[in-house]
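Thread: Newbie trying to understand structure tokens

Hi all, I'm a second-year student working on a class project, and my supervisor (Dr. K.) asked me to get a predicted structure for one chain before our next meeting. I've only ever worked with sequences, so writing a 3D structure as a token string is new to me. If someone could post the tokens and maybe explain what I'm looking at, I'd be very grateful. Here's the chain:
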Amino acid sequence: MSFSPYDDASDILNQILQQSDGKTTANGYGLKSTAYAFFAKQQKKNKNKKNRKVSDQRNRFTYALVCQTMKYKSLLDAILSYSSSPNEKDGIAATLEQKIKYKDMRNKGLCFIMLYELLLSKNKSIRGGGYMKRTIVKLEDELLRVKKIVMKQQKQNEIRQDIPVFPRYVRINTLKCTVDEVLKVLHSDLSKLDGNDRNDKNDVDEQQSSTTSVSVIYADKHVPNLLVLHPKTGRVLNNQHPLVKDGKIVLQDKSSCFSALALVHGDGRFCGKNDENSNKEEEGQGDYIDACAAPGNKTTHLASLLAELPSTSSKSAENSKNNKKKKGRGKQNDATNKITVYACDRSSKRIEILDKRLSTIIPEDYNNELNVKVQSLHQDFLKIDPLDYPNVKCILLDPSCSGSGIINAPDRHYHLNQSNDDDKREKEEKERIESLSNFQLLALRHAMSFPNVTKIIYSTCSIHQREDEDVVHAALCEHNEQAETTDQKWKVVLPKCLQHWTRRGHSSSTENGKDDNDGVGLTDEQANCLIRCNGSDGDETNGFFVSYFERESSSNSNEVMSKNISDEDDGCQWPNWPPKGTKTYNGEFANIVADDDNIDDGDDEGDDAINCDDKEEMTIEKVAPTENKTKKTKATTSATEESAKISAKKRNKKLAWKKRQMEQKAKRLEKKKREIQSSDEAKE
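---
Reply by user tm_fold:
Sure, no problem. This is what the structure looks like when written as tokens:
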């Protein structure tokens, strides 16, 4: 049986449609989780290493096709349900859905994929064959006519302009490489991509400003070691890039980097180049807990930031020297000086994903040079006894949420569009958010119960106040009312490292703050300590919420709570950031319009890009078979060169095949000619 280009895509889409039929995404997995779980099963079956590159290319095609189909799912639904010409038999207006017998179809996913390919893709054609293709092609004229009517009615002819286009964010994993090493490879790869882009588009002005070139690389001004790239770089910079596979860079959305950054640098001890406290060893430095860790991007970011602290890095150097002196005396692992990051998750499946992620990004510390270690815990955070972890001083809590801030995910809130009853849909959404907020409050209260913890980060990728400010307000009120001493009470504080981020939280005095609080909520001063991101309102990153808690007795007092930042202040002055020769990003890519080349298909590996209801994420990198670590991959080999080599091989194979076919055809004609001549001679 020959391979259909739509087989894998239809299988994945069918799973998503089944999960969403009358259910919320909380009862199933998201698009990414479903797709990469499917790819993992396929890779287990495929034991031939030579076919893995072909399989990876097919997986990328399949995933992109499913993403694009899901983006236009509502439009395709409207086209199918539109009443067309009346049925001659019963006089009832027959819809296209009835004409193609959609309800009787077993493979509904294949139907939507073929409709997308015919009506909305670049090629406007369906590949392959089969009964379903013949059925849809017969109705092509009517489908195109209905498409124009529906798009005009819903004004969806401008749908591409409504899709947000964010820059490509790349976090450098300083645990495994240097900034200069990454920049060297990226400059090499992107310069070739920029040349191809200029050659492909003749209408591009040759005098185009270099500030918006595809090859230009910027440094983010809020997050250290975070690069900002053109949206079109996703064509090269994806999960198959050597730097990503080796764990030297992480494709992570900017807003999701705020959680770990605020936890480590929220007190401002190491934010400035000239900070008088930046060289002092942090007092009371202890261990950390990432309460809902899988898939692990925030965990690894936390470890990377901790390893760069002056106190930890100096200890690491000292430990390394001591180990060299004690070489030959047995194992000398001075674990007492290490900061431990406990990465918790209750799901065995998710903890397996987390472990794979950690093995890729966190290097093996054979020489005890790192002063940070990450330990995964297969345990429910709510069931952890705080007394069992007396040395834990900081907790990062990023629990399950509605994911309402993720506006560039193709399957986001798909389940909410399944019902035509607006009241029912609104009720389902309200119940879902209420259930999530109750869990979030429970988790935050549990984090506050750790007696020795001095700092907590509570963050979500939701923009709903019920999951954000309301949870913060309820946790503060309930915990502080029961606290016996001031030392046990908590307060919200503006993270000094993010004090230049202008979008803040909602208070009870604001219009947004009154929705769910019945007039009772956070004060203006408290709301000013909360960090919000809104991708629909120009933040160039997905929606996110961050709250930073400290003990009431903390020395980092309220001077940062309502501090007004002057326009002349450019933000935190991170040591060695931005790197020399790299400019700070100031919205140069903000006006780029969405098209098929730069629409994000959810390829980023960030925690915010996952199904936030179940905190489950799988990437190509995680499910792909790991190669022998002793084999060193040349970082200078670009993805562009690899793809060019593959294309050249395919082209040469095709030409050779055509040549053989022509030779065989010539032989057959010559043989036939001889037979005709011999028969003519025999007749004579």
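A couple of things are worth pointing out once you decode it. The longest helix spans residues 639-683. The chain has 20 helices and 14 strands. Feel free to ask follow-ups in this thread.
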